[in-house]
Structures are given as structure tokens and as C-alpha cells.
């Protein structure tokens, strides 16, 4: 029984596969590692089957050809599901991930690591020297954005290994885009994480399969992962950010209507409030609340206007109460102003959360439709 499965997602990698297989098994057998390889191919039609069948005579290579589905993340998930060994390692087929490092990964797994990731960014590693400034910048920003989810230098690497046990308590893996390593790091309880610095090169043969669209999906993926990790605080931060943007809208319309169109200032105040509250409702429906889109828009919009009005009343009312009755506040109106904002936002948030957007508390841990995906273990 092998101890390690090398999962290799492939799409049109026939020209790289023979060398990859040869190098993977040379590396593992030299280090006395019993390994099998699982190639998950999306029906490339480029002779991948023949190569796997041929090399399968000599090495333990298994091919899964997926005919209905395409996509890197789901291919990796399929490989994880189909494998049975205690240790798993995922790598690109394009030889950008040196197979000679596999024994190093296994060494750390045997020492009890929960997650081992190969990194061109860690000290001692290097990335492809031909990268343009834009590519480097892109990678730096992408890594920076993931910082809140993990302490790993380069959680975006596609070369990583872990023991199957860490998936036991993971509710669901459903990466949008392709950063499955980051998904596992963020969702599984990985206490001991090891980074292996290494030289990572771009592919020599074939072309990159990852389109700009998939790279953009990374942002959506990040948002989901932050939501998963920090469900309530992420919600509050998003609600707050939406609120701030709404204040901008409110002010813009108020000034425009009053000074550009000569509308009476009290009427423009009411109008700009409705416009800003509608803006907030829309953004909160789409971004802030997980179950936000479950309800009919019309009724929800009205309900949000009511909750925003209650919030506004609490804001203005507390300001008035404080400045009318407490001499200190009369002298320090700004303090009363911010207390008002705080109370108003608190009312608005609580009402929105309970009555407008999310009636079901159990959605908190991301079991809602937005995060539904494949359950793998
Ligand atoms: N099964 C499968 N593999 C894919 C798909 N897209 C990319 N891959 C494989 O995933 C790995 C990473 O893709 P690659 O094109 O090297 O991305 P890059 O390294 O970011 O340029 C390679 O082994 C690809 O063959 C896909 O849709 N399905
Ligand atoms: Mg690659």
C-alpha cells in the first residue's frame, strides 16, 4: 500500500507528462517512498491516455479522465476524493514544480506537519527570472491580500502536500477559481505548516491554461474565505464599508439636488437619504449578507428603508437627547455626533441582519447557497 498519492491535474500536458512521471518516480524510489500518481485529465485528447497506459506498465500511474467537467480546482478535488493514501501532494504537470523536492515534502509530513507548501517566495527560494515587473507586482498584491488568512509567505503556490486527516473536519471545499491550496489552508485546522523554499520556473513546454478570468475569480475566492474565517466580523466590516460608501452617495445627492437643481434642502435631504439607503440595500444584498439574495427584492428594499430610518432616528435622536440634556455634550458636540452614528449604525445593522437579510442564523458558518460546493470527505 503506497503512502503518498501525487495528484497531477492535467489539460493538454502530453508533452510534459513522460518527463514528469519519470522524474517523480525516480525521486520517490531513491528516497524509499512508496508513491502512486493520479493524473486527473479533462479529456485533453492529446494522447495522455496512451502515455499513462504506457508508463503505467513501469510505474504506479492511474488516469482519471473527466468528460463532463473542466477546471483545475474540481480536478484536484476529484483527485483527492479518488485517492486513498494517508499523504497527498498536488503539483502542476508542466515541470515548473521540481519533482526532486517530493522527498522533502514527505519528510515533513512524516514529522507530523499538517500542511507543506513549496514556495518560490520564501527565503532561499526563487521565482522565474523572466517574470515581468507586472507579473511580480501581481503576485505580490495577491499574496498580500491573503495575509489575513494564513501566515504562509506564498499560500498561492500550486505545489503542496498534506495528510488526509486534516480534511476530516473541513465542512466543504468549494474554491472559485483555482487556489485550492489556499482554500485548504484557510478551512482546515493546519497547526504545523511548513514552507519549503525552492526555485520555481515557468513552463518550458505547452501554454498556461489559466485565463485572466480565473485569476480574477481569486478576489471572489478571497472574499469567501475571509467570510468563512471571520464570519461575523467580516459581515460587520462589509456593512460598515457599505455604510461609508452610502454616506458619500447621500452627500453627493444632497449637494447636487440642493445647489445644482435648486431643490428645497429639506426635500433633497429626504431624497438623498432614500437614494443612499437604496444604494446600501443593494450592496448589502449582494455582498454583505450570505442569504441576502434569498428574499424578493421589492419587499426587502422597503424593509431596509424602514431599518435605515430607525437607524437614522436613533442617530439623530441620541444626538438631540445628549446635547439637550448633558452640558458636557453640548460643549463637545462631535462626541455626541459620533455616538449617534455608532448607535444608528448598530440599530441599522441589527435590524438588517435579523429582519431584512438573514432570517436563518445557521447560515453563519457559510452553509448558505453562496458557499455551497463539493463535500469531499
Ligand atoms: N484537469 C485539469 N487540469 C488543468 C486545467 N487547467 C489547468 N490544469 C492543469 O493545472 C496545472 C496548472 O496550470 P498551468 O497552466 O500550469 O497554470 P500556471 O502554472 O498558472 O500557468 C497544469 O498541470 C495544468 O495542466 C483544467 O481545466 N483541468
Ligand atoms: Mg504551471
Q: Uncertain spans, ≥5 residues at pLDDT below 50?
A: 359-377
Averaged pLDDT = 89
Shape: elongated
What letter string, H or E per element, gives the SSE order?
A: EHEHEHEHEHEHEHHHHHH
Descriptive key words:
377 residues, alpha/beta, Spore Coat Polysaccharide Biosynthesis Protein SpsA, Chain A, 2 domains, elongated, disordered C terminus, binds guanosine-5'-diphosphate, binds magnesium ion
Helix-strand layout with pairing:
Elements: E1 4-10, H1 17-30, E2 35-41, H2 48-56, E3 61-65, H3 72-82, E4 87-90, H4 102-110, E5 115-119, H5 133-145, E6 160-163, H6 180-187, E7 193-197, H7 212-229, H8 231-260, H9 265-288, H10 297-325, H11 327-331, H12 333-357
The structure holds guanosine-5'-diphosphate and magnesium ion.
The site of magnesium ion has 4 residues, from loops.
Describe what this molecule looks like in 3D.
The chain has two domains: 4-230, Spore Coat Polysaccharide Biosynthesis Protein SpsA, Chain A, CATH 3.90.550.10; 232-359, no CATH class. A seven-stranded mixed sheet has the order 3-2-1-4-6-5-7. The chain is 52% helix and 10% strand. The chain is α/β, with parallel strands linked by helices. It has helices at residues 17-30, 48-56, 72-82, 102-110, 133-145, 180-187, 212-229, 231-260, 265-288, 297-325, 327-331, 333-357; strands at residues 4-10, 35-41, 61-65, 87-90, 115-119, 160-163, 193-197. Residues 359-377 have low confidence and may be disordered. It contains twelve helices and seven strands. The longest helix is centred in the middle third of the chain and has 30 residues, at 231-260. The radius of gyration is 27 Å and the shape is elongated. β2 (35-41), α2 (48-56) and β3 form a beta-alpha-beta unit. The structure holds guanosine-5'-diphosphate and magnesium ion. Guanosine-5'-diphosphate (GDP) binds next to β1, β2 and α3. The site of magnesium ion has 4 residues, from loops.
Amino acid at each position: 500500500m503506497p503512502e503518498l498519492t501525487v495528484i497531477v491535474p492535467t489539460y493538454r500536458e502530453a508533452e510534459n507528462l513522460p518527463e514528469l512521471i519519470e522524474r517523480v518516480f525516480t525521486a520517490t524510489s531513491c528516497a524509499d517512498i512508496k508513491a502512486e500518481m493520479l493524473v486527473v485529465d479533462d479529456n485533453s485528447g492529446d494522447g495522455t491516455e496512451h502515455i499513462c497506459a504506457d508508463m503505467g506498465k513501469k510505474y504506479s500511474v492511474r488516469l482519471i479522465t473527466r468528460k463532463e467537467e473542466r477546471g483545475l480546482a474540481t480536478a484536484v478535488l476529484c483527485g483527492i476524493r479518488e485517492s486513498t493514501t494517508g499523504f497527498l501532494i498536488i503539483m502542476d504537470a508542466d515541470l515548473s514544480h521540481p519533482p526532486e523536492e517530493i522527498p522533502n515534502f514527505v519528510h515533513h509530513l512524516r514529522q507530523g506537519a499538517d500542511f507543506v507548501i513549496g514556495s518560490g517566495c520564501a527565503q532561499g527560494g526563487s521565482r522565474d527570472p523572466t517574470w515581468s515587473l507586472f507579473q511580480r507586482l501581481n503576485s505580490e498584491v495577491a499574496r498580500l491580500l491573503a495575509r489575513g488568512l494564513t501566515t504562509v509567505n506564498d499560500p498561492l503556490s500550486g505545489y503542496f502536500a498534506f495528510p488526509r486527516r486534516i480534511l476530516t473536519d473541513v465542512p466543504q471545499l468549494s474554491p472559485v477559481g483555482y487556489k485550492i491550496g489556499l482554500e485548504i489552508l484557510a478551512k482546515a485546522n493546519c497547526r504545523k505548516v511548513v514552507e519549503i523554499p525552492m526555485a520555481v520556473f515557468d513552463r518550458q513546454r505547452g501554454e498556461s491554461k489559466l485565463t485572466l478570468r480565473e485569476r480574477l475569480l481569486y478576489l471572489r475566492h478571497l472574499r469567501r474565505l475571509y467570510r468563512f474565517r471571520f464570519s461575523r466580523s467580516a459581515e460587520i466590516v462589509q456593512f460598515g464599508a457599505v455604510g461609508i460608501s452610502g454616506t458619500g452617495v447621500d452627500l453627493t445627492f444632497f449637494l447636487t439636488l440642493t445647489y445644482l437643481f435648486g431643490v428645497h434642502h429639506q426635500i433633497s435631504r429626504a431624497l438623498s437619504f432614500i437614494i443612499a439607503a437604496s444604494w446600501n440595500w443593494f450592496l448589502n444584498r449582494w455582498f454583505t449578507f450570505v442569504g441576502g439574495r434569498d428574499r424578493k427584492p421589492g419587499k426587502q428594499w422597503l424593509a431596509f428603508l424602514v431599518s435605515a430610518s430607525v437607524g437614522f432616528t436613533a442617530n439623530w435622536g441620541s444626538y438631540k437627547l445628549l446635547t439637550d440634556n448633558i452640558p458636557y455634550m453640548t460643549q463637545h458636540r462631535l462626541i455626541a455626533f459620533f455616538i449617534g452614528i455608532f448607535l444608528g449604525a448598530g440599530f441599522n445593522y441589527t435590524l438588517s441582519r435579523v429582519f431584512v437579510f438573514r432570517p436563518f442564523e445557521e447560515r453563519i458558518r457559510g452553509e448558505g447557497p453562496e458557499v455551497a460546493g463539493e463535500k469531499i470527505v
